[in-house]
Design goal:
This protein has one domain (2-289). 78% of the residues lie in helices and 3% in strands. It contains 10 helices and 2 strands. The protein is globular, with a radius of gyration of 19 Å.
């Protein structure tokens, strides 16, 4: 099983690295959108949506804002040309502020899981609310990973992905070797406190290495290290959040598409939670120093 997991992860990491560095922006966004829609299909099952037409409708409701976001500038330009409202072009930057709701959502999730895991696990939400939550977190993840590549380039995008991947790997192996105290046994018996510390240390090391490579000033380097460690922390609780949804549904994996890993959601749960926080901090740090 471990060998199968390693082989699958290696192939996926290679393909994603190729996409980050080689694909044009439009194709990269399209690829991330396809992955997001596959995850959305799995989410409909976890949320308890059984009717085929409702599952397809959920995908369509996700695709519509994706298209609007992807062509936001062109939409504003068209509105400016068709109306007497030329100032509408000034709203092109409003998308950046949409990062605040998902950041607050994931911080709230982290606090609730940390303080009342049983309460979160036993929380009974209607299917419609679960669908709304899935739509919200998946759209946010696609949007801000795409925009990270657009605004901050391939290297920053690849750094984020490597940061979360290494944190997952560190948590797994450090927890397996030295972990005894469980992080949230009610939700995910395999995760340990020591494993979480291993993930946080890996985030610190990643940020420190990148800061040395690029010669960041001390203040910027310290901010970047803090950002990376906090992004890793949120990613851990993103993983736990998806585990909550799976436990409520009574399944071990979100799907079976990836050999040794389960479904798409099982692989991107950490990324989904971390990307809004990472993007938002990068955006506001860049604004403060520019």
């Amino acid at each position: 099983m471990l060998l199968q997991r390693i082989l699958t992860a290696s192939v996926l990491a290679t393909l994603i690295a190729f996409a980050v560095f080689q694909l044009p922006m439009e194709l990269f966004s399209l690829l991330i959108a396809v992955i997001t829609l596959l995850a959305a299909w799995e989410w409909t099952y976890l949320a308890g949506i059984s009717a085929l037409y409702k599952r397809i409708l959920f995908l369509l409701v996700l695709i519509a804002p994706m298209l609007a976001i992807q062509y936001w500038t062109q939409i504003l330009e068209l509105i400016a040309q068709l109306t007497d409202w030329p100032d509408v072009r000034d709203y092109s930057g409003i998308l950046e502020w949409f990062v605040i709701p998902p950041i607050l959502f994931w911080i709230l999730v982290m606090i609730l899981i940390r303080n009342t895991p049983n309460g979160v696990l036993n929380l009974q939400l209607k299917t419609g609310y679960k669908a709304l939550i899935g739509w919200f977190i998946l759209l946010s993840a696609w949007m801000f990973l795409s925009r990270l590549r657009v605004l901050y380039g391939t290297e920053m995008t690849m750094y984020f992905l490597v940061l979360i991947w290494l944190a997952d790997i560190s948590a797994f192996f450090v927890g397996k070797k030295w972990g005894s105290t469980k992080l949230a046994p009610e939700i995910s018996p395999g995760k340990t406190v020591v494993g979480m510390y291993g993930a946080l240390v890996s985030g610190l090391v990643c940020a420190a290495i990148l800061s040395l490579i690029y010669g960041f000033q001390l203040m910027i380097a310290s901010d970047f290290i803090l950002l990376s460690v906090l992004a890793v922390l949120i990613s851990i609780y993103g993983d736990l959040f998806i585990s909550v949804v799976k436990r409520q549904r009574g399944v071990k994996d979100s799907g079976s598409l990836l050999p040794g890993h389960g479904g798409i959601l099982d692989r991107i749960d950490s990324l989904i939670a971390a990307i809004p926080f990472f993007y938002g901090c990068i955006y506001f740090v860049y604004r403060s120093v520019s």
